[in-house]
Design goal:
By secondary structure, the protein is an alpha+beta fold. Helix content is 29%, strand content 10%. It folds into 2 domains: 4-170, Glucose Oxidase, domain 3; 173-237, no CATH class. The chain has helices spanning 23-36, 61-71, 117-133, 157-167, 219-234; strands at 4-5, 9-12, 49-52, 78-81, 143-149, 169-170. The strands form 3 sheets. A two-stranded antiparallel ribbon has the order 1-6. The chain has a two-stranded antiparallel sheet with strand order 2-5. Strands 3-4 form a two-stranded antiparallel ribbon. It is globular and about 60 Å long. The protein binds flavin-adenine dinucleotide. GO terms for molecular function: flavin adenine dinucleotide binding; oxidoreductase activity, acting on CH-OH group of donors.
């Protein structure tokens, strides 16, 4: 499992981290930070992160039911995050190798993103919600012009879907390749103490061990899992 993202880009009339590309601004920011520990250098980027469980009617009842059944009902459907960056098609990430036997060519890795129609339904809904974020009057003074990417002419569900298929990229959260689960589960590799079924003295303790990917950033959960399994090992389990 992995998380993928797709973005809307707007030009804004406020100072963002992109301004640090200007050497003069950068020098001033560095001086301010060194002198007072204040200013733009205190900002790690991606200042706003939020999670949402969609309001009723945003996605179909069937998908709502399927997601709640899968995730227990209290997980968010999507995460929204802001970046001081120009996001577009992400084409440069997608190195598609030619048909070649040259070992120096990059391999083609197909993670099968967006093969479940419910994932696409959720992403289309999230895309429309994201556009709503730019609608309130209070936001208008911060915006310059219209939508830079993908642009307002991407309007119908089919156009939004095509854009998402073209631009979606990983959030770098691949996980769950050695799933923890019941021995009766054919996809499970580990028991609840992270021991590999059918072996002795072998555990997998990392993001691969997750039975499913949490609806957020996984690093903290990797630490939590490691603490838990270390405790089990120390207690002779
Ligand atoms: C660019 C990027 C940004 C991210 N941002 C965030 C974020 O903001 N918040 C968040 O929560 N998560 C973030 N993540 C995800 C997070 O980093 C991973 O989910 C997490 O590190 C996974 O932990 P892990 O222990 O499973 O694997 P890893 O942290 O990848 O650890 C695997 C370790 O195994 C070592 N290794 C590999 N092969 C061998 C070998 N043969 N012998 C010995 N050692 C080996 C590697 O060197 C590595 O140290 C980000 C990931 C990336 C790539």
């Amino acid at each position: 499992m992995d998380h993928i993202w797709s973005a809307i880009t707007r030009e804004v009339d406020v100072v963002t981290i992109a301004a640090l590309a200007d050497p003069e601004f950068l020098a001033e920011a560095n001086a301010e930070y060194v002198a007072n520990r204040t200013g733009i250098n205190t900002n790690p980027g991606g200042t706003i992160i939020s999670f949402e469980k969609f309001p009723k009617g945003t996605i179909s009842d069937a998908t709502r039911k399927a997601l709640d059944l899968e995730n227990g009902g209290d997980w968010p459907d999507v995460e929204y995050f802001s970046q001081d960056a120009y996001a577009s098609t992400n084409d440069d990430y997608l190195l598609s190798a030619p048909d070649s036997k040259d070992t120096f060519d990059h391999p083609v890795v197909n993670p099968n993103w967006l093969t479940d129609p419910r994932d696409m339904e959720v992403l289309i809904a999230a895309f429309k919600r994201l556009r709503q974020l730019f609608k309130p009057k209070v936001v208008q003074p911060a915006l310059i012009g219209g939508e830079v990417y993908p642009g307002e002419d991407v309007a119908t569900d089919a156009q939004i879907e095509a854009n998402i298929r073209r631009s979606a990229d990983t959030v770098f959260h691949p996980a769950c390749t050695c799933k923890m689960g019941m021995s009766s589960d054919r996809m499970a590799v580990l028991d609840s103490k992270a021991r590999v079924f059918g072996t002795k003295g072998l555990r997998v303790v990392d993001a691969d061990s997750f039975p499913k990917l949490i609806p957020g950033h996984p690093q903290g959960t990797v630490y939590g899992l490691a603490e838990k399994i270390a405790y089990e090992i120390l207690n002779g389990n």
